[in-house]
Design a protein that fits this description.
This protein has about 150 residues and is mainly alpha-helical. About 60% of the residues lie in helices and about 0% in strands. The chain folds into two domains: about 80 residues; about 45 residues. The relative contact order is 0.10.
């Protein structure tokens, strides 16, 4: 996890620096662009805010990975002298197949269409379908015929 938080932290710093440069450059360009009056020149706020939010998202990921890295032991991929064989063994349980992600995507599409066309009844229907599909995805291996697959 130490590698991950360093990567996300570096990307966040790069995006913040890009936001500062973009703010300066868009202000400079808009004040010197031909055909634009000086009082009309202004910074592109949409791009600057988008970059700042993207940097904040990367910083949140870096903070999460840093928080987790403090609580777990050093992994082989975090050790500069680590060998490939140190990472051998069981990694975890991975689902062999599930239809619930498709249902979740379909439910999110229904809710999204309700937001696009502003149909409150469709938004509510999509939200209920999202809750149902999320519950099905989370509890897939705790009930029914697939219960034995999740017991590892």
């Amino acid at each position: 996890m130490r590698t991950e938080y360093k990567i996300f932290g570096g990307v966040a710093l790069f995006i913040y620096a890009s936001a500062a440069f973009y703010a300066w450059y868009s202000e400079y360009y808009m004040s010197t662009a031909p055909g634009v009056a000086k009082e009309q020149g202004h910074m592109d706020w949409i791009g600057v805010v988008a970059l700042i939010l993207s940097g904040t998202l990367c910083l949140m990921c870096a903070g999460y990975f840093w928080f987790v890295a403090r609580r777990i032991d050093l992994r082989p991929e975090d050790d500069p002298d680590g060998e490939i064989h140190e990472g051998a063994g069981e990694i975890g349980f991975f689902s062999p197949g599930s239809y619930w992600p498709f249902g979740l995507a379909l439910a999110a599409s229904v809710a999204g269409m309700g937001v696009v066309f502003w149909m409150p009844w469709l938004i509510a229907l999509g939200a209920l379908a999202i809750l149902g599909a999320t519950g099905g995805l989370l509890f897939e291996y705790y009930t029914g015929t697939r219960k034995a697959l999740g017991e590892h």
